Here is the input.
Amino acid sequence: MSMAFSLPNVVAGLMVGLVVGVTGVGGGSLMTPILVFLFGIPPQTAVGTDLLYASVTKVFGTAVHHRHGSVDWAIVRRLAVGSLPAAAATLVWMRFAGADRIKDGVIIDAVASALVLTALGMLFKDRLQRLGRNWGQGASERALVWQPRLTVAAGIVLGLLVTLTSIGAGALGTVMLVYLYPVRLNAARLVGTDLAHAIPLALIAGLGHLTLGNVDFPLLGNLLIGSIPGVLVGSLISSRAPVGLIRYCIAIVLTLVAVKMFLR
Here is the structure.
């Protein structure tokens, strides 16, 4: 299949890549609504294409974190034990639920719900991190025994949500890890671990959508042309950018988009 160059799609990939590079979150939560509302892409195709797009772009960030030793692979495995089977089960449900039922609003409603959760996670990220660390400092050894099981449960939630919507692996995954591992994960390891887990989850979910016919390869190629340099540039300027202000603005936009989706 030949890929026709599309400047609007490349620019969309570039802008989302910049945001991800600067803030570390916002890829799926921005890209999927952009594809649906600005470019008129069917929701299921937007989700499937965005998942493969995310699995490729996050490889670059994970490689950097791995070289610096800021990926906790034990936690990644625990998350994957829950998320990958949950993603597979969601894909099976989508296959047997029927295309008409999916198109009639399941994905749109799921995306809108995920956008609200992501916006809340971004708005209250700093407060949630403080609460999580305070909890971690006072947690008993008995409570820590539940960490592996709760991590698997968190993976199940992420697997379901990401497969249906392509949203949640970034902001929501980070919030979950802050609460589960407030002492074990510093800021760099938190981001690196979350990114590393997002790759197999997005890849499995994306390949599943591919079997359902929900991936637009020309669109995927154009998005990657813009997003890869965007992520690199965003990473370089992240230390000088007003990350807090950008995060609040994104959260407000996501909330407005979610309202529009619910009221469609």
About this structure: The chain has one domain: 8-262. Residues 8-262 form one domain.
